[in-house]
Design brief:
This protein is α+β, with helices and mostly antiparallel strands. It has helices spanning 2-18, 21-36, 71-84, 182-185, 191-205, 217-224; strands at 96-100, 105-110, 113-118, 122-132, 144-151, 158-162, 175-181. The longest helix has 17 residues, at 2-18.
């Protein structure tokens, strides 16, 4: 063994003598580092790669809050908004609102009139919002937010009477209008969308025409379901 070590040392000296000083230094550093490394030291295990899920995250659909709402629930909600957000110009004020489920009639009392609105005659496919200025040449009044719904062809949407109980002359009977203070309604987030949904469902539950899309009849019939 000693002879073999001597031979190896002699060979190493020969190699080192043949190399430049820099090459010899590099070679000696490599040999020293190799000898100093502990034997049998385990290599660091690679970190496991995160598993990719093959299933995309499912979007949880928010349930419709009006799904189980009854005529009573909807009419009370609408009444509350008609009174709380009523115009206050002395002419278009909503003094009282009441709903009769036996006749599907929404009655609204105003300072100079009473209007019976027949919800079973209305068509939810023809409903619009607009802002109306009731000012005249003598008086300036606050803008009104107005929801208009038309009746099904051949049906009367409303009947209005003055304080003496006489029918109002020249009344357009093929539409109904619900009036709100525009300024007050603007303070409630999503007010128009909520009221539209409530009124549409109340009309349908009262026997009015259901919502449909004439441009996509297949999807409309599928969403309405079988009766």
């Amino acid at each position: 063994m000693r002879c073999a070590a001597c031979i190896c040392s002699a060979a190493l000296l020969v190699c080192l003598s043949a190399c430049s000083k820099d090459d010899a230094r590099v070679l000696m550093n490599k040999l020293t580092a190799k000898n100093e490394a502990p034997e049998g030291s385990p290599e660091a295990a690679p970190l496991p790669k995160p598993e990719k899920s093959g299933k995309p995250g499912k979007h949880v659909k928010t349930p419709d809050p009006l799904l189980d709402a009854t005529q009573q629930d909807l009419s009370e909600y609408l009444r509350g908004k008609l009174l709380a957000l009523s115009p206050s110009d002395g002419i278009n004020d909503n003094i009282e609102a009441r709903f009769d489920p036996s006749t599907s009639t929404l009655t609204i009392l105003q300072p100079g009139s009473r209007c019976d609105q027949f919800l079973s005659a209305l068509d939810v496919n023809n409903m619009t919002w607009d802002v109306f200025d009731p000012s005249d040449t003598h008086n300036s009044r606050e803008p009104l937010l107005r929801l208009t719904a038309t009746s099904v062809s051949g049906k009367k949407a409303r009947a209005c009477y003055n304080t003496k109980g006489q029918p109002e002359p020249g009344l357009n009977t093929n539409r109904v209008r619900l009036l709100f203070s525009y300024a007050k309604s603007e303070q409630i987030s999503g007010f128009q969308e909520k009221i539209m949904k409530v009124v549409k469902k109340l009309i349908v539950l009262s026997g009015g025409a259901e919502e449909k899309d004439i441009f996509h009849p297949s999807s409309s019939s599928a969403s309405s379901g079988h009766r």
